[in-house]
């Protein structure tokens, strides 16, 4: 959806509603695109620990079956999970 600055000023609620519903709005000045108004990204879903562990076990089993091996040093970032969330 393309919206001019004037339309944005006059129909802000309609534009916000479109963005809330997931639509990307291109803001234009004299027909020239100048900005994108995009829906805010939400944090990825939180899943129960049991589900994550089951998925990791499944991946590990598949890796063993395929003979895939990873060097543990590839995963050492020097950060804790708490550090990564900041």
Number of helices: 4
Rg calc: 23 Å
Mean pLDDT: 87
> What is the percent of helical residues?
40-55%
As residue ranges, the low-confidence spans are none
Proportion of strand residues: 15-25%
Largest sheet: 3 strands, mixed
Which sequence of strands runs across the widest sheet?
1-2-3
Question: How many individual β-strands?
Answer: 3
**Pattern of helices and strands:** EHHEEHH
- For the termini, the CA-CA separation is 34 Å
Shape: elongated
The secondary structure category is alpha+beta
Secondary structure layout:
Blueprint: E1 2-4, H1 5-10, H2 12-20, E2 25-29, E3 32-37, H3 49-66, H4 81-85
Parallel strand pairs: 1-2
Antiparallel strand pairs: 2-3
Write up what this structure looks like.
The chain has four helices and three strands; from the N terminus they run E-H-H-E-E-H-H. It is an alpha+beta fold. It has a domain of 36 residues. Strand 2 and strand 3 form a beta hairpin. The longest helix is centred in the C-terminal third of the chain and has 18 residues. The mean pLDDT is 87.
Concise account of the structure shown:
The protein has 86 residues and is an alpha+beta fold. The chain has helices spanning 5-10, 12-20, 49-66, 81-85, and strands at 2-4, 25-29, 32-37.
């Amino acid at each position: 959806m393309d919206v001019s600055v004037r339309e944005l000023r006059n129909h802000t609620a309609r534009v916000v509603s479109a963005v809330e519903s997931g639509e990307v709005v291109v803001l234009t000045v004299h027909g020239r695109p100048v900005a994108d108004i995009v829906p805010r990204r939400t944090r990825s879903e939180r899943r129960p620990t049991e589900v994550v562990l089951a998925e990791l076990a499944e991946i590990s089993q598949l890796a063993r079956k395929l003979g895939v091996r990873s060097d543990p040093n590839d995963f050492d970032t020097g950060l804790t999970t708490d550090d990564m969330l900041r």
